[in-house]
Amino acid sequence: MGPRGAVVFVVAAGWLFGQQESRESTKYVYDGMGNRAVATRSSSTRTGTGAQSSERIESVNGREIPRETVEERVLSEGDGAKITERVVRRYDADGLPGPPEKIRIEESKSPDGSISTVTSVYRSDLSGNYQLSEKATEQISKSGNVTTVERSVEKPTINASFGVVEKSSRTTTETDGSSHSESVTYRRETGGSFYAAAQEVADWKETKGAESETVTVFEGAPGGKMRFSRQTVTDARIAADGSVHAVTDVYNVVVPGQVSSEEATPQLRERQIFDRKAGPGGEVVETVSVRRPSLADPDRLGEAHRISEVTCHGCELKKKP
Question: What would the pLDDT profile of 185-223 be if each residue is shown by its tens digit?
């Protein structure tokens, strides 16, 4: 996600609602004929010491069953340090729970303002025994208007020890009403050395009642080079009442149903249209529509089709993520 995350939401087809004490939301999806169906129902409650959330789906026989539940609690907090534990439970198609996952988040803040976060993921087997499966360390430091984020991910290796398999670095420079961010992700090869797997460049700008962001993603290519993968250009208009209308254009070199060549140039492949506004009864309604080219005419976008809608009770329209 870009440095701000205020307008890139359209790329992920969703806007993060502001945190509330409690909320209920329903996500609908639309088929090719425009028929609407419930995809998920979610509820969450947050207090000063923790939070609970659940996501439910409809089974094949029409019964509502859990899909995922999350319980979060603050284990300790004070002197610039905070430890949070999160337990995630996922369920199968019959609503039966699978082995839980426990996530421990240890955050500490130094006097100079830098923040260090260690996230440890423990997965349970069928006997209920937890084993460390992943560990991520993130260091955030700031100097003037420049913020640097260094992150590394460790996983078990073939000899049962833990080793760094991925590391990334992001630098964001903020000026009045704008920011520029660059990041590089490195992954470990079989031989043990690291290679540049992905690069992202993001530019964000805010003006009165509007925000825009351009995010360009590059991927590693043979010979250690980087090649263009994807670009999103988002323009959002924010009304005085807090409602949002945003359009994201997605460019890439891949044409559905065709083989891409090295000489292919980026073209507009999709347009995503996002609207967030107040609905009846005090709810907040978010809708996402898309325009895509057809296989018969890959160079022209077709008509807009709504693909999802989320209604939320307990969310504030004007509250930004």
Answer: 999 988 889 999 999 999 999 999 999 999 999 998 877
Short-list 154, 155, 105, 101, CA closest to 128: 101
Nearest-angstrom CA–CA distance, 46 and 166: 33
- Provide the residue type at 131 as one letter: Q
Per-residue tokens: 91: 């369920």
Separation between Cα atoms, residue 170 and residue 2, nearest integer Å: 10
* C-alpha–C-alpha distance, residues 70 and 97, integer Å: 12
CA distance readout (Å), 317 to 47, 167, 279, 285, 289: 21, 37, 10, 9, 20
pLDDT class for 236, splitting at 50, 70, 90?
very high
- Residues 315 and 244: their CA atoms lie apart, in Å, by 14
Give all domains of the chain, ordered by start, each with its CATH number: 8-313 (2.40.160.10)
Count of C-beta atoms within a 10 Å radius of residue 104: 16
Which of 78, 73, 65 shows the shortest CA–CA distance to 45? 73
Mean pLDDT of the chain: 88
pLDDT at 263: 63
Q: Which is nearest to 17 in space by CA: 179, 202, 242, 206?
A: 242
SS3 177: coil
Amino acid residing at 254: V
Phi (first) and psi of residue 278, to 5 degrees = -75, 140
Contact yes or no for 232/8 (Cβ under 8 A):
yes
Give one DSSP letter per residue of 183-249, joined into a string.
EEEEEE-TTS-EEEEEEEEEEEEEETTEEEEEEEEEEEEGGGEEEEEEEEEEEEEE-TTS-EEEEEE
Write the single-letter amino acid at 277: K
Backbone angles phi, psi at 5, to 5 degrees: 75, 10
Q: Is pLDDT of 10 > 50? A: no
**How does DSSP classify residue 28?**
E
